[in-house]
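Backbone shapes recur. Consider a single case.
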Amino acid sequence: MNGPGEDRADGSGADHPSGPAAVLFDMDGTLVDTEVLWWRATEEVADLLGHRLGPADAPEVVGRAVQDTAEYLVRLTGGADAATVAAALTDGFFRRVAAGAPLRPGAQRLLAALAAQDVPFALVSASPRVVVDEVVGGALAHVPFAFTLSADDTDRTKPHPDPYRAAAERLGLAPDECVAVEDSPDGAASAEAAGCAVLVVPSLLDVPRTPARTFATSLEEVTPALLRACGRAGAGDQTERSRSARIPSA
């Protein structure tokens, strides 16, 4: 039997101790398994520009906004212009997402547990609006997000703090009342710079440790109780074991 304040086996919790007023979720690589799809789309465009994408390119591709990756490829190859490359990246990513973007393990259970506790949560993505809407209408259909925020909704996207500040403001909260769930260095930097506590569940890249970040190996081990602990303790007990970059093989 669970004692007062302990989470039930389903993660919903018998009581609702104070914790984050809201949870802000990244999308790609955090809730949905799309980082490989983004890599493939970038690989396709890079090939057209005469560059073979490899592990050395990962920091400029994984978790990066479309425009940032486009500008990187243009600097690298000297081909086309950033706007044209960005359009090609968006098109290639959208086509792959539309064909199917599975949820990350544990995502559905965690979202359901938060909804059961009436903890509001929103989606804060660095992907374009067209991609966010495709995923929310597909893999994340029927998930009760308070709202979704895309790269098109702020002047600057991740790694700048603007998206998470804007999300907290829309919820009527201070950023430090929110916990952000992220998988990438840029996303974690964005949330931390905004003032959020950060739970990191890495996907393809290692994420640096800081006092504001708690680590988990998978969403399968994340519960509302862990999110409460993130909000209270920041660094706390960190369970993430070191990972090296895992770039999809050709």
In short: Residues 1-17, 234-247 have pLDDT under 50 and may be disordered. Strands lie at 22-25, 121-124, 148-149, 178-182, 197-200, 213-215. The chain has eight helices and six strands. The CA atoms of residues 2 and 8 lie 7 Å apart.
